[in-house]
Amino acid sequence: MQQHDGPLARLRRGHEDLVLDLLRRGGPLSRAELGAQCGLSRTTLYDIVGALVANGAVVASAPDAAQRRRGRPVERLALNPEAGQAIGIDLARRAVHVAAVNVAHEVVGTASRPHGPELDLAGRIALAEELVGGLAGDSLRLAALSAIGVGAVGPVASAPGTGGAPALISASLSRRFGVPVLVDNNTRLAALAESVWGAATDARDVLYLRLSHGVGGGLVVDGALHRGAHGLSGEFGHISVDPGGRRCECGGTGCLETVASVGAVLERYRAAGGAAADIADVTSAARAGEPRAAEAVAAVGHHVGAALAAVCNAVGPGTVVIGGELAAAGEALTGPVREALTAGLMPVSRPLVDLRPAALGEVGAALGGIALVLHRSPLLSRYPNRETGEEA
Amino acid sequence: MQQHDGPLARLRRGHEDLVLDLLRRGGPLSRAELGAQCGLSRTTLYDIVGALVANGAVVASAPDAAQRRRGRPVERLALNPEAGQAIGIDLARRAVHVAAVNVAHEVVGTASRPHGPELDLAGRIALAEELVGGLAGDSLRLAALSAIGVGAVGPVASAPGTGGAPALISASLSRRFGVPVLVDNNTRLAALAESVWGAATDARDVLYLRLSHGVGGGLVVDGALHRGAHGLSGEFGHISVDPGGRRCECGGTGCLETVASVGAVLERYRAAGGAAADIADVTSAARAGEPRAAEAVAAVGHHVGAALAAVCNAVGPGTVVIGGELAAAGEALTGPVREALTAGLMPVSRPLVDLRPAALGEVGAALGGIALVLHRSPLLSRYPNRETGEEA
């Protein structure tokens, strides 16, 4: 799972990808057939194949009876049908979500369990292990597991081994399941998932904004998840939209999160005399045109649109995806967002930004964890095919 | 210059890179020596080498006398010392700049010529051709030219052949010089140049802001120039910083450019009773502590810092580089920028953003054109070595 960036390491990775790709398309092949198709020297090919067999990605099958009779037993190589299973986990603030895919990159199971915000990280990890255990069975064999991708709350630096929550998560899960574990910010992973399996599968440059208890998001840049220099990208919730506004949990002032979180909207709605047990009451009232709910949601939309405009002018995404509980308000939210976004965009950019609701719901970040490991592990090869990718 | 993204094309590109790299490090090598070092089959290696000889990147040298006498004439392969020369051109609003590098990626010449803003694109292209002709000589042989990278004013879409100014520039220069021509926005190219040769050679995620007659910039994301979905990234000058402010040339309102351009600063300074023939008078007065100049520059700094904070929260660059004529004000500008940037950043990000002045000056975008073609052309191989890269 380490990244090797030298030209020889890149070349070796390319060779591995090529061999895996030929086996995926061409079914079982002999070494001679592989050699004829891949253009590698015998020495290089045997070296690559040996490593792929050793790490379990490829299996060598016994020669069949017909070949034996002709006295020319030729071993054939094939993808290991039990390799390449992957699990995604989202250790979110109020719930743990898990999802699993098989070697064909089909989603074979998902599970979610809510918990109180007081549950600590170790408790969330234990809950995730329990949910994964519940998914295990015919379609997910833990012995065939190749990698786990995990979404965690808060900043996750790019460099591995920098300690903190990501290191604890990684150590704990890789000890339990014996496979590599990659960790990234869960909201960024939801952004990746929307671009791989969700609302933006047709786009290479995507901005994903999540309006939930917290406000955050992620950027997909030219098809890849963008982390930023210190793992601190996608903090849209901490763009200041009201310099004289209230103090944010982050320590800043007037952050978007202080006016656009679930809690801020509920508070605004109740202060205006609205009655709501939870945010779903507000968003459905806004959809139904109830004036106080519509106003509370529209106020969020204007702030969101203004913040998005600044980011879009800088980054130039063609697609903006909005998710989280507030997105359930539909056009009552996206109308005002679109209006403020349009006002703040360079006129030349206005027709070029496509605003869409998120498609993946609460398991988005867990699916993003899978996308992360599919993207990074040579064992699992490239991104799932966008045409055949399952939606959750 | 087309991009081929299939696995076989990527692999071939990797093979070419490897062969070029081995020749660059190991001097002239026989085919047998190359084969032993690169791990390719004889067939593949001969195919790759044949293509590199055909396109002029590699030359086959005659066997030397000692070998002849021993009766074993072995042809040796070497990088073509006359290949791999590249030219960068900046067709800016008020001047044309050109720069050239040799096969060793050393800058062998630069030239600039100011012109009036009324000079049309065809006129600027003709001026560029004249300046390139003036550079031609012993160190730049036009016959050995491999590619030209051009910076142009305004949006440049990612997809080639989309018409407009980029298509005109590309057609005109490739007809004149007979080589591939790549075009990108000139301010984005200046961003790339700062990351390859300038103030941010140690950084992979860079935000470059240029405060000049216009205000713009570019993002380098994980070491590569970021374009955005429609070639519209880096438009920092059109982030609204004053919603009730004045109309911008772009059609928007209160854009950063309306308060932070050279023209806006001169106007503000003169309105306050300051006397300045040009912006250099204002920036040097601000450096000297003259109150009206310092105030005019500080006002820019506060707006710039606030806009940068929004972008940094979203994108997470570790390094912010400020260039353009206004950067000459030094700490009189960067002090207020830093103050407003810090106030607007998430507290956790505050110690992680490094603010620096640009290092490359007016020829930056032309150097960025070279970086663009060095990065894209298999002939010219990878980016210049950052340790040995020349600074302009």
Automatic annotation (TrEMBL), chains A, B:
PROSITE patterns: ROK. It comes from the Bacteria. Pfam families: ROK (PF00480). Belongs to the ROK (NagC/XylR) family. This is ROK family protein. It comes from Actinacidiphila polyblastidii.
